[in-house]
Amino acid sequence: MHHTGRYSKYIRPISIVLDVMVITLLSLYFFKDLKLNMYVYITYQTFAWLLIGFLVKFYEVFRFTTPVEIISKLFKQFSIFLLAIIAFFPFQKTSIFSGKAIAIFMIISFVIIVLFKYFFFFYLKKYRLMTHNNYRNAVIIGYTQEAIRLKEVFENRKDYGYRFQGFFSDKKQNSEIKGRIDDIKPYVIQNKVDEIYCSLNEISNEKLKELVEFADDNKKTIKFIPDTKDIFSKNLKIDYYELFPVLSLQKTQLHNPAIIGLKRFFDILFSLFVIVFILSWLIPLIGIIIKLESNGPIFFKQGRPGIDEKEFFCYKFRSMRINGTTEKEASRNDPRVTKIGKFLRKTSIDELPQFFNVLLGDMSVVGPRPHLWSQNKAYANKIKKYMVRHYVKPGITGLAQVKGYRGEIETDEDMINRIKYDVFYIENWSFAMDLKIIFQTVINIFKGEEKAY
Question: What is the pLDDT of residues 250-266, one digit of tens each?
Fold first, then answer.
């Protein structure tokens, strides 16, 4: 029996070589008339590509890496690489700068490399499903809840490429348990086990030390299962006080000043685009129709809790008749909603004035939707992690909305699911996720949504 995963070590070098070949051949073709010293330029370009790849961890793609993470890495790599290419031209005075040539080069390079990554990523997943040759054998020490969940992941996600061999435990015995912890070493050798997952709750420090030494001596991978999942599912960072390691919970990406600046820059550009090219002509048109149907202002303004629960005024096209129940959310067949209001709400056009909120800095294009103050009071102490959503700016659209959790809250379960997606978004943010949410929002507008009333 051949050792599983025997080709894995070649995947990254092959990927790097192919990427460098693509950008080298394309630059030789598209930049041939720009009077560049191609030897110097190709050397610079290759070094820049590899350095950026190292910094953004472009080639750190594993069998459990999600498509969203891969897309995020692609955008980071190519955005910085573009800046690196542009930065080269001022240093070679004889060169001719051509924005068109650079744009075509970047687009074609991006398309070819993306297609390659897509094919490679999904081919490997299908290959693992069709053959057992590339599976990695795995065992788990401990029989805790988290250990059982991990075993279910191995069995349900065959595309991850793991073959689960069994549990080892001193505390429990059943048909799934292959033996006691002391039995694991000969079993690992005899059955060519590749990875050992260890529940820290079921092993002593002395046995753990022995197991780590055994794994090092026999070139086996050992990984640890945290039994306090609610804490350790968050990002951890390690600091050293002299030589003493200390683990601490990291704040989310959205607390990083650089990410805050990037997100704000995108918000300004995107909101200006919508205001100039859409709202400039849509506001007069919608305004006239609203006025013809009912008396009152064109816009509806309402105080909502924003970042750090600070109040801001959220703007919408008015979709209801003037009434005194503004803290009551709309329900199906709500008599307060006007005829044009039904259309505006169904298509989410009523939300478009919130791009002024984005431009002013009260909201973001993507983020948790701002709730009513009455909802905050009702659910803040009732639903776990409810207040986490106030760590960031509220958004015009969000992950919960594109997953269908929008509109009227009919049961506590509706709000629980909404919060679950809001918290997931905050703790796992990426620029690629924002783009995906925006894209899905546009699709949902044209498809129509059941709870948009």
Answer: 567 788 777 888 899 99
Task: Round to whole Å and give the CA distance between 128 and 450.
Answer: 39
Residue pLDDT, tens place only, 293-319? 888 899 999 899 999 889 999 999 988
Distance CA 147, CA 405 (A): 31
Q: H-helix or E-strand containing 101?
A: helix 99-130
- Helix, strand, coil abundance in the chain, percent, nearest 5: 55, 15, 30
Confidence (pTM): 0.53
Instruction: Take residue 10 and report the two structure tokens written for it.
Output: 């070649």
223 and 282 fall within a common domain:
no
Is the domain of 58 the same as that of 166? no
Place of tokens 């709309």: 330
The closest of 322, 271, 327 to 304, measured between CA atoms, is 327
Under the banding of pLDDT at 50, 70 and 90, the label for residue 453 is very low
Token pair, residue 286, equals 């919608």
> Alpha-carbon distance 314 to 364, whole Å?
12
> What is the structure's pLDDT at 104?
92
Q: Which residues contact 324 (CB under 8 A, 6 or more apart)?
A: none
In order, the DSSP letters of 353-398 are: THHHHHHHTS-EEESPPPPPHHHHHHHTTTSTTGGGGGGS--EEE-
On whether both 323 and 337 belong to a single domain, the answer is: yes
Average pLDDT of span 172-198:
85
Residue 219 located in a structural domain: yes
